[in-house]
């Protein structure tokens, strides 16, 4: 396949939420209680709400930084490439990278709304969480029709409230909700407790909403080996997806809710062939446990419910049939440290060609599987001939790709504000 003929949907990117995002979405009575940006004595920007404080660490917004300046230290809007938080610049950066559509996960709010979950006043948290979802759906996504796939964050602390929010957001056009990977680590019932999560699973299935389980929610709460380096978190975070899959597959949710859809966001695909082989062997061998999946194997049920999302997985693409060719979708992860910008199409095609994928398989992985799974029409607002890598790149040939130190980004930001 010619790289310019590719069509790319990224099912996992991230928004660095801009200042003022709550202004148009919080009821007047709560304006003075909304999350807001405070710039500390260290010059770093942080969101403050009730007793909670959240900033953006360096790895969250490294696009166009020298790699030797990456890190877990905090950063500020002044140091970021504007495409991290500015919707117009984000679309230009995506045009330049040949990406048609994107699903953007939260940053300060946490992948599953943990920022609001941890705040003590849950009634006030719900007001702000709903305002967050309204901003994301009605402002961030709606301002650029056809370019973003709306995603909601959950009030995970109450299943009835969460079910209501899923239905509310679905009516507004969201396609997915980003849930905790391992809710028991937050002090909530696990996904084995089907009575507790029934209202949520019902709402997801009734509305066709996808349940996204983004890596990092679970592993960040697991105690690693004493003295283990940060490499453990970055490398092993994907393995938590297998634990979450185990809870949903063997806990009964996939069996009792046949329409439940789960995207293993940023989980990669390498764990899946081994996991499914192990599941099928276990099911057929350990008959004394009494499991009954009817005329299906556990691997069949997993594939019916799942979308496996990856950034780079060259070895696993070679066993794509063992994963399930209709189960794999690609993600860019902009502006995180794993992202590929601006050469994502070439990088992606290199891995697909290296695995000897056919043109039909490439289309499935780069956009068709995502569009089907999320029930998303990528050509509703943009004609297919205008949605290719070549056509999109022609819209923004002048995008600056320069790698700049953080101090230089800050100087440019401050100069622009002064002018």
What proportion of the residues is helical, as a percent range?
25-40%
Rg over CA atoms: 21 Å
Q: What's the CATH class, please?
A: Alpha Beta
Tally the structural domains. 1
Q: Give the strand content.
A: 5-15%
CATH topology: TIM Barrel
The largest beta-sheet arranges its strands as 7-8-9-10-11-12
Number of strands: 12
Low-confidence stretches: none
* Principal-axes shape call: globular
pLDDT averaged over residues: 95
Number of helices: 16
Give the full name of the CATH homologous superfamily. Answer: Metal-dependent hydrolases
- Most strands sheet: 6 strands, parallel
- First-to-last CA distance: 46 Å
Give a description of the structure:
With 419 residues, this protein is α/β, with parallel strands linked by helices. The protein has a single domain, classed as TIM Barrel, CATH 3.20.20.140. The strands form 3 sheets. Strands 7-8-9-10-11-12 form a 6-stranded parallel beta sheet. Strands 2-3-4-5 form a 4-stranded antiparallel beta sheet. It has a two-stranded parallel sheet with strand order 1-6. Strand 8, helix 5 and strand 9 form a beta-alpha-beta unit. The longest helix has 20 residues. It is globular. The N and C termini lie far apart (46 Å). The model has no long low-confidence stretch (mean pLDDT 95).
Tell me briefly what this model is.
This protein has helices at 87-96, 114-118, 122-141, 159-172, 194-207, 231-236, 240-250, 253-256, 271-285, 298-305, 314-317, 320-323, 344-354, 359-373, 389-393, 406-418, and strands spanning 8-14, 36-39, 45-49, 52-57, 74-75, 99-105, 151-152, 176-178, 210-212, 262-264, 306-310, 328-330.
